[in-house]
Design goal:
The protein is an alpha+beta fold and about 290 residues long. It contains eight helices and four strands; from the N terminus they run αβαβββαααααα. A four-stranded mixed β-sheet has the order 1-2-4-3, with helices on both faces. Its EC number is 3.4.24.-.
Length: about 290
């Protein structure tokens, strides 16, 4: 099912690039856009995880340090419970607490932690976070999420280029500035919708899978509450809107509570709702 979703997603993006190419350059623009789409799809499929780790300057987490031993041990325990191969572990030199999983399948997966999350959480809470990230691996939604992050960046560049082209065209050039502007405005919105489509529901599913694996959602619920406060007090210095959906909690903060139109345009469901579901799942299991 995830493979079909990935193929559909890449096909949809190819169509978007072709549309943009047609608006910008007519028939020749479509040909150029097709070549660009093929390149982006190839890079997204095979290298999106490496690009994201490079963006955040993630470094391998050594299993020999005291901190590394702790994390590697907890990850191995959860992998055994979930019958998954152990992913590569990375760390980001960032004090804002957060984590994410990336890769294209369980055999090529990575889990990335910030320095802040390892300092903030106790073992039970960190175990909950690890189980959540491994749930993304097990549910095979890490590929499409990583692709979405890469493509969102590419779309951002396209939007900027189109805005520049709309206002800087030389006289006599066969361009449609109104069309360019419409596409330039629409493209970032489409990028946001793409992120929303692959993010919100999968967070609930990963929470549920983690709680089921650990027979309790208490540790993860406590971790999420700490992360919400931690991110508020220590903002993520180099967080990128295009990759925000990858993280266990929105690194940009700003989540609204309750029923709010703004919630429709956030990459993550409210922490309070996630905590409520996790604790309800715990009581239901008992």
């Amino acid at each position: 099912m995830q493979q079909l979703r990935t193929v559909f997603f890449l096909g949809l993006l190819t169509g978007l690039f072709l549309l943009i190419g047609g608006v910008v350059g007519g028939a020749s623009g479509i040909i150029g856009a097709f070549v660009f789409a093929v390149v982006i799809n190839f890079i997204s499929y095979f290298y999106s995880d490496k690009i994201v780790k490079w963006m955040y300057r993630a470094q391998p987490l050594s299993p020999h340090s005291e901190q590394g031993k702790r994390v590697h041990h907890l990850v191995q325990q959860s992998c055994t419970k979930m019958q998954l191969p152990k992913p590569e572990l990375f760390i980001i030199a960032e004090n804002s607490p957060n984590a994410f999983a990336t890769g294209r399948d369980p055999e090529h997966a990575s889990v990335v932690f910030t320095q802040g999350i390892l300092q903030l959480l106790n073992d039970k809470e960190l175990e909950g976070v690890i189980a959540h990230e491994l749930s993304h691996v097990k549910n095979r939604d890490i590929l499409i999420s990583s692709i979405a992050a890469t493509v969102a960046g590419a779309i951002g560049m396209i939007a900027y280029t189109l805005q520049f082209a709309a206002f800087s065209g030389r006289d006599g050039e066969n361009r449609n500035p109104i069309g360019l502007l419409i596409v330039a405005i629409s493209v970032p919105i489409i990028a946001t919708l793409i992120q929303l489509a692959v993010s919100r529901s999968r967070e609930f599913l990963a929470d549920e899978t983690a709680a089921h694996t650990l027979h309790s959602g208490e540790g993860l619920a406590s971790a999420l509450q700490k992360l919400e406060k931690g991110i508020h007090h220590i903002p993520f210095a180099h967080a990128n809107q295009g990759t925000a959906h990858l993280f266990i909690a929105n690194p940009l903060g700003g989540e609204s509570e309750g029923i709010n139109v703004l919630n429709w345009f956030q990459t993550h469901p409210p922490i309070s709702e996630r905590v409520r579901r996790l604790l309800h799942q715990k009581s239901a299991q008992h």
